[in-house]
Each structure stands twice: as C-alpha cells, then as structure tokens.
Amino acid sequence: MVFGLFRRRSRDAEHKVYCEIVAQARQPVFYTDFLVPDTIDGRFDLIVMHAVLYFRRMRGEGAKVAEFTQDVFDLFFQDMDASLREMGVSDTRVPKKVKVMGEAFYGRADVYIPAIDNGDPEELAAALGRNIYPDNPEQLAQKRLAYYALEAAKTLAEQPTAALMDGNLTWPDPNAFATLKV
Fold this sequence. Notes:
Number of domains: 1
Structural class: mainly alpha
C-alpha cells in the first residue's frame, strides 16, 4: 500500500482540541460577568488566552506532542483566515490581517506565560487588561479573569497529556470566579 503513505492523515483530534478551546472561550459568563467585550477583538483575545494556556501545558512533552500542537495552532489560524474571508475581508488583505493576528498571539503568549509560570495574578491581570480591556479597564474583572486563568493552568497541568491530545480538556468553571472576592 504505497499510496497509503501519501494520504493526508486525519486531524480529527486536533480539530476536537481546537473546538474545545473555542467552546470554553465562548462561555457567556466571560462576556457578561467578566465584562470581556463581545466583539471580534474580545472573542479573539479570549480564544488566544485559552489557546496559550493549552500550548503552555503541552510544551516540553516531546516531538510527537509538539507536532500535534503545531497542527492545533495551524487550525487556529486557518479558522482565523476563514473567518476573515466570511466577514468580507478581501483576498489580498487576509494574509496581512492573519500576520497581525499571529504577532498578537505571540505577543500575548510572551506576557501571559511568564505571569502564569510565576503564579502572579497581579502581573497576569495587568497583561489581560492591556489586551482584553484596552479601552475600558475593568480592574475587578481583570483580576477575576487572572485567577480563572491561573486555575485553568493548574487544571490543565493535572490532566494526562494523552487526554489533552484526545480533546478531553477539563477547564475550571468560570462561574466560580465571576464573583470572586479579590
């Protein structure tokens, strides 16, 4: 079966992981109680935050996991590309916009990951504020979101890598943080 070597492998597991990340980021509580702007930018930023949490958890797990997470990352940006086209962005502008989104992703990862690694809710809240609430800072919501993200990092760390590659992601309940006294 030489031709089997050239078949495109299924990306069902990667797609499931990406869908789980997006589903968590679209929880209504984030847009109501956490006051994340229910805009294209607000939704993008919340997906990025959850994706960063997932990719942070999966780092250092070996070549097979790195390849898998790269496929999830690629799906993320294929989805962003498709979304821009659906919104009517011209074919010539889509690559430029996707490039800006990629730079935004890496910029956010560069500030979120150290704050998460340090377990620093103040540092993380400040970073979330600059990115998610740039026009209307929401100090309390930012802190609650930071505590949620730190708990999400802990929850993901406790899950087996194999389960996380199968798309069986467990996230903390954001409702538990929506009224947190901080």
